[in-house]
Specification:
Layout: H1 4-9, H2 23-26, E1 27-31, E2 36-41, H3 44-48, H4 50-68, E3 82-89, E4 94-98, E5 101-106, H5 117-126, H6 142-159, H7 165-171, H8 173-180, H9 190-193, H10 197-202, H11 204-225, H12 232-242, H13 252-263, H14 268-275, H15 283-286, H16 289-298, H17 307-312
Parallel strand pairs: 2-3, 3-5
Antiparallel strand pairs: 1-2, 4-5
Helix pairs in contact: 4-5, 5-6, 6-11, 8-11, 12-13
């Protein structure tokens, strides 16, 4: 996840080692059934978390491959199941992904009170598909690139048991609050906010968390309209199948068309008003998150009324 802090500290990623280790210990290759991970550790502390990192990558790689319907693709469209991971312990959490490579600075702190190094790793791994296998035409679709990646990051964390159902219900309220309180809301559109590195930097919460809110709202609406037969997953597979980064890049209009193709629903008004426009998404009209939280905690008999909310958040049983 490219945070404001991470952007400032990223260039220090390769400078120095936190703890001196033998050169032979810095490189390690793990061959698993579904994936091969080529590690480059920058310090002893990073080497120590290899078992946890390997399990997380392995489990998520299987889930992501199933979600998209295929392995990640490189710059020229070739699929792969081996990639390099650079790990460095540092003061600030941050990460970067490119085809066949993930670079991450980690620690045990929580960014914004909820993002951990584990979720940041899941985020960067997801980018091997969303951003690198299929790619946006320009920065105006960063709300999708980053926001939808955040959305699937936390759904995956629930599926893998990193986040409990209760915690996910609470976590889901965080992007809603950060989006609603973002300084650019109503002044600049989500698309314009991501148009350049500077505007993305200045409107971080509108881009990342606004995009996350869009993903939740759309996924819930699709599930509810189709009675659970379709979901946002169908759009992600559609993008993977139709937009090879070396042949064709996607734009907002492509996303609208993709939703029509896979769900039969035209969301152009929603996109034009809340993503290309400056209107604020009336989240409570589309996603009864508070009611779903209340039912989950105190009125279990009413949970069935919010089944699509729970499914949207990766919660499959109560």
């Amino acid at each position: 996840m490219k945070t404001k802090i991470a952007t400032l500290t990223f260039y220090a990623f390769f400078i120095g080692l936190t703890t001196q280790v033998n050169a032979s210990e810095l490189n390690k290759t793990i061959n698993l059934e579904h994936v091969t991970i080529n590690y480059q550790f920058k310090d002893k502390r990073s080497l120590d978390i290899e078992p946890e990192t390997t399990k997380l990558i392995s489990d998520a790689f299987v889930l992501y491959s199933k979600l998209f319907g295929g392995l990640p693709r490189g710059k020229w469209g070739e699929t792969y199941s081996d990639f390099t991971v650079h790990l460095k312990y540092g003061k600030h959490l941050g990460g970067e992904a490119d085809p066949k490579i993930i670079m991450m600075t980690w620690n045990e702190k929580k960014l914004f009170g909820f993002a951990s190094w584990q979720t940041i790793l899941l985020h960067e791994l997801f980018h091997l598909w969303n951003a690198e296998s299929f790619r946006y035409k320009d920065g105006r679709e960063q709300w999708f690139n980053e926001g939808f990646t955040e959305y699937y990051t936390y759904k995956t964390a629930v599926q893998l048991g990193l986040i409990s159902a209760n915690d996910m219900l609470s976590t889901a309220s965080k992007p809603v609050g950060l989006y609603s309180a973002s300084s650019g809301l109503g002044k600049i559109s989500m698309r314009a906010a991501g148009a350049s590195n500077q505007t993305k930097f200045d409107n971080y919460f509108l881009v990342y968390h606004g995009g996350w809110v869009v993903a939740m709202v759309l996924d819930h609406d699709i599930r509810k309209r189709t009675k659970g037969s379709k979901s946002l997953d169908d759009l992600m597979r559609w993008l993977y199948g139709n937009f090879h980064r070396n042949k064709k890049l996607y734009s907002m209009n492509d996303l609208i068309q993709g939703l029509v193709d896979v769900t039969g629903v035209d969301y152009s008004h929603f996109f034009n008003a809340y993503i290309d426009g400056k209107m604020t998404i009336p989240v409570s009209d589309h996603l009864p998150l508070s009611d779903a939280i209340w039912a989950f905690e105190f009125e279990k008999q009413n949970c069935q009324n919010y089944r699509y909310v729970y499914e949207t958040l990766g919660i499959t049983s109560n």
